[in-house]
């Protein structure tokens, strides 16, 4: 994840038709489309926008980790001792703690797929990494990928 705003950040997903089948281009390759990362969820359950909203100068751009963390309540409310000391000497400090966004995505993915066993959850996490929510037909896809229910 970039620290600063990015116009190009997102992922690529395979294009599927209305029946869930892959769509191929004239060259025989699977078509892909650019997708945005889903908004996050704060511990209190409120949504955390990861992209600038309509009306903003950079609408549609990824905010960047620095801006996302500044949006968090209480994150910028008080300075750390390091920031205070550096500020006294005219040095600007940007404090960015560890941020495990992808772990949150996988947790959300598995939360939405409530009825999966451990093996099914591992399979879904691998197959749908980069997706915000697995498709409704995930159990059918798992059965098709594992004919004996393995």
From TrEMBL:
<protein>
    <submittedName>
        <fullName>Uncharacterized protein</fullName>
    </submittedName>
</protein>
């Amino acid at each position: 994840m970039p620290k600063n705003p990015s116009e190009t950040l997102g992922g690529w997903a395979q294009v599927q038709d209305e029946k869930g089948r892959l769509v191929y281009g004239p060259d025989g390759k699977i078509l892909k489309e650019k997708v945005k990362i889903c908004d996050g969820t704060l511990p209190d359950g409120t949504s955390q926008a990861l992209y600038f909203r309509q009306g903003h100068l950079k609408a549609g751009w990824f905010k960047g980790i620095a801006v996302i963390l500044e949006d968090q309540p209480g994150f910028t409310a008080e300075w750390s001792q390091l920031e205070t000391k550096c500020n006294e000497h005219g040095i600007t400090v940007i404090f960015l703690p560890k941020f495990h966004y992808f772990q949150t995505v996988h947790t959300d993915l598995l939360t939405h797929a409530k009825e999966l066993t451990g093996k099914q959850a591992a399979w879904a996490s691998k197959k749908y990494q980069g997706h915000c929510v697995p498709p409704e037909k995930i159990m059918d896809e798992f059965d098709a990928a594992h004919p004996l229910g393995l």
